Amino acid sequence: MNDSQHGMSRRRMLGALAGVAGAAAVGATGWASAAGANGNGLLVPAGKRGIILYSVRDRIGAAPDASGVPYGFERVLARLAEIGYKEVEFAGYNQHTSILGRQITPQEIRKILDDNGLRANGSHASIPGTVTPDTIAAFERTLDTAEILGMQHIGTGSDPTGSNYKADWDAAVDRWNTFGEMAAARGLKLYTHNHDAAYNFLLDSGPLDAQGRPTRSSGVRKLEYFIARTNPEWVWFEMDIYWAHVAQHRFRSYTDPDGVTQTSVFDPLAVVAAQPIRFPLFHAKDGAFNPANSAGYDMVPLGQGDIDYGHFFANMGAKGYHNPMWEQDNAPGGAADPGRSLRYAEVSFQHMSGLRG
Hints:
alpha/beta, TIM Barrel, eight-stranded parallel β-sheet
C-alpha cells in the first residue's frame, strides 16, 4: 500500500468514527439535509475558495531575487489568482520595501486584488486587549483598512484570552462585544480564530487556590463558554479545523467540582453544526496523524493528511455559506526551496476544489 492509499484509508476510518457523534449533532440542527439533498455537489463553491497569506508569507515578504518564484503582493496575488483562489485573508499588510522603494499602501493592495479578481475576506489584525480611548481609536484605524480592502470580516489570529479562568473569559466577552459592535456599525463581522488551548476546559468551580482562583471545571470548554455569552450579531468565529482536532486529541478529561476525573472528547463538527452561521470562516489546515507528536498531527498540504474535510464540510450545515481559507504554517521552504509554499498552495487548492458531497 503506498503512502497516499494509506492516508486515504486512515481518513476514511477517522471520518467514520467522527461521524457517529457528528451526525447526531448535525441532525438536531436541521442543516444536514442541505448536504444530502445536493448529492455530489461541490462542498466549497468556486467563489469561496480562499487562502490566508500567512501560508505564503515567505514570498509576500521576499525581496526581488533570481529564484523565478513570485515575490511581493503584486506577483504572489497574481499567482494565487492563476491557481484559482478567489478569497484572501491577510496576515499583515507589508512587503519588502525594496520592491517599491517604500512600503505598499492598503489602496495599492486593493488595486492588486481588483486587478486579479480577488476578494479580501478577512485579516488577522490586532484586537485590543483593553478598552480605552486610545485602543478604540486604534481599532477604528484597523476598521478603516478593512474597509479600504473591501473586507466583510475582520479578526485576529489569537484566542480572546490565554487564561483558563472564568473571570478572564467574562472580561473577554465584554471587550469583544464592545469591539464587535464597532465592527458591525461598519458592516463588518468581528471574528476570533482558535488554537487548541481555546477548547481546553474552563476552570470555573471547585476549591480556590492561594490566589482565590477556581481549580476545577464544570466541564464546559473555554471557547464554547465564550460563544454562548457573546452577542451573535457582533462576535463571529473562524474555526481552525486542524487546531480543533488537536484539542480533540489533547483535552479529553477534566476534574469535576467533586474532584472526580471525567472523560469528555471534543467534537469540532458538533460545535459548528449546532450554530453554523456563527462560523463564516474556517482555516482548512490538514494534519497527518502522528502519535509521537504532542499535538497528535503533523501539518501537511490539504488532502495529504487524516482530517476528513469531505465529511466535515458535508455535515457542518449551511452548505455554501462558509469561507474556508487554506493554511499551512510550515509551507515555506526557506532558501533551499523558495517555491514550496506556492506549490503547496496549488496542491491544496486542487483538493479543496475537488471536495464533493
